Amino acid sequence: MPSVYHVKNQIFLPNGTNIEKHVGIIDLSAPEGKQLNIRQRLITWKYNTKEVPYSRCSKDCPSGYRRLLQRGKHTCCFDCVQCSEGKISNKIDDQWPNEKKDKCVKKPTEFLSYDRDPVALVLCIISVTSSIITSVILGIFILYQDTPIVKANNCNLSFVLLVSLILSFLCVFLFLGRPVDITCMLRQTAFGIIFSIALSSLLAKTIMVCIAFKATKPGSYWRKWIGIKLHNCVVFFCSFIQVVICICWLSISPPFQEMNTHSSPGKIIIQCNEGSVVAFYAVLGYMGFLAAVSFVVAFLARKLPNSFNEAKFITFSMLIFCNVWISFIPAYMSIMGKNTVIIEILAILASSFGIVGCLFFPKLYIILLRPDMNSKKHLLRL
């Protein structure tokens, strides 16, 4: 039950007797923080002094310092040493000691911000510019879809590839700004599925080039595959496998936002934890598998007649793609913070633009600058 207690000061007199003096009360019914009421000026300490005594060996440590016990001595005997790096508060982890180590200040946060990082603005401009260029190329191909140069390289697959490349440029925006759970889940799965569609389209293009060349021979077995929508099956099946991997990833251990307070002293890195590292590298590994198969098939078909010379350009584009992502993995593993996001964005932009440049710029040159070469007669002569 609420009670009131008296606080007594026991004073030992020189003649061996002692007296008790009332110096305060403890009122348990009082509000929090006002339950103890002590009149310090009435307290008499040992040696008949009114000052609060220090420990016999050492004085209290000043702000920014901590006690270091002296070996072999009583606990009241200690040295004062400056607080260790990062040691001042153990209640919350979003604060950090100032330079004097006598006050807590907020830790700065680090992520790829639109406002604070000029590199984010540069990446936005590159992403938007690249997507606009790819959209213009798509418009030109739609406008000239009845011309031989577009027909010879399967215009439907070209459209699918260009749309997936536009989306790959735009998915960069999922990596910019302060990460949250939804963007963490979308950024890896979105670019994984989009790139798988692009690589599946390239693989289907290469397969169709090989089949088209073999079907030109009289009595060829491959002639019957021309009328079948084989390329649609290749794109759907290869992309579907990546979709299944991403669904399993999101179902079992999805990515999430993480406050990393340990990697970099003095700051909080707001980043995406990939959840399942195995699933993350499974997505990258499957993309690498598609790129490797496309590269091998295109390399074997590179010496076909020039009417079907798209295999050469696919070989170069896959060479760039593989080099970019092989370089990405060690770079991604060796850095931390927002630099990992920058590296991944650069890998997406470089590999996407490598495909656009190698595969479509030569065709644009013929369509826009050399229309005389964009004829069936010229292609057959080649």
Describe the structure in your own words:
This protein has helices at residues 118-143, 148-151, 155-170, 181-215, 230-252, 277-300, 310-334, 338-369, 376-381, and strands at residues 4-12, 18-27, 36-38, 65-69, 78-82, 95-97, 104-106, 109-110, 256-260, 268-273. A hairpin with a 5-residue loop joins strand 1 and strand 2. A 3-stranded antiparallel β-sheet has the order 1-2-3, with no helix packed on it. It has a 3-stranded mixed β-sheet with strand order 8-10-9. Strands 4-5 form a two-stranded antiparallel ribbon. It folds into 3 domains: 1-53, no CATH class; 62-106, no CATH class; 118-381, Rhopdopsin 7-helix transmembrane proteins. 50% of the residues lie in helices and 13% in strands. The chain is α+β, with helices and mostly antiparallel strands and 382 residues long.
Please supply descriptive tags for the structure shown above:
alpha+beta; Rhopdopsin 7-helix transmembrane proteins; 3-stranded antiparallel β-sheet; about 50% helix
